[in-house]
Design brief:
Elements (H helix, E strand, L loop, with lengths): L2 H18 L10 H7 L2 E6 L6 E6 L2 E7 L5 H16 L8 E4 L12 H17 L2 H8 L7 H10 L3 H11 L3 E8 L2 E7 L18 H8 L7 E4 L11 E9 L4 E8 L1 H4 L6
Parallel strand pairs: 1-3
Antiparallel strand pairs: 2-3, 2-4, 5-6, 5-9, 7-8, 8-9
Helix pairs in contact: 1-4, 3-4, 6-7
The structure holds zinc ion (ZN).
Length: 269
Amino acid sequence: MQKRTAVAEGRYDARGFLRDYGVKTRDDVLPEAWAHDLGIEIIEADLEGASAQLIRLGDVARIVLPARVTESGARRFAIVHELYHFLKKHPSLSPTMLCKPKWQRSTGAREPQHVYEIGSNTFGSSVLLPDFLLRKRCEISPVSLDVPWQIAKEYDVSILASARRFVELSSERCAAVFSKGGVVQWSTRSTTFTRKIPDGRLLHPDSIAWDFHATGTLDERAQPVPARAWFDTSSNVDIIEHAICRPDYGTVLSLLWVPDAVGARVGMP
Ligand SMILES: [Zn+2]
């Protein structure tokens, strides 16, 4: 299965799942209750380097969450992610399926395991942050991390999850870029942000994210940066970057926005 198919299927399954569980408002989004309803026990253990684990032995299914992860947003996401592996009966080599963040996986992008992870992440995001509840709020200009922060708080998800979902649902030219050690780990774009920011790209010294890499801190306000800080362009125009850092993890999340006035000049008419 291709990445695109896995994403489409994850979204489709999420719609059916939300319908089956009668989700109409934020208060109906209840990962632990869903797991319980499906007969899945949730336990904690010392999972080195992994974000969660699914154990299937005969009729018994368990989701194991890493004891070190105490943020409820990360836990909610991990539960729904594993629920999808369970519901779809994604195969694993042993009764235990260990899920890791993308940059910690040793499997290649073309291996089946990678596609299952994409499916589970898409399902997780679509179920925790339903499009029919959030799309309108994501149609906002100017774009900054303000709305993703509100959504993260209200829906009890991480800012990474809400920023990704925000750019998926927004029609503005925007992208969420996650970097660590001066290197782009992943990025998600809105359909109108047509320039690619590849994984593995080195941060440009003109980006706000680079400031954190260079000095250990950054100015956490939305501000103009040269467009060429994020993608190749001969145009000497600014876009907006709103970045936040996590010094304890050494990571930066940048939300980029290309306003209408400069869209055509950077190849995004
Ligand atoms: Zn997984």
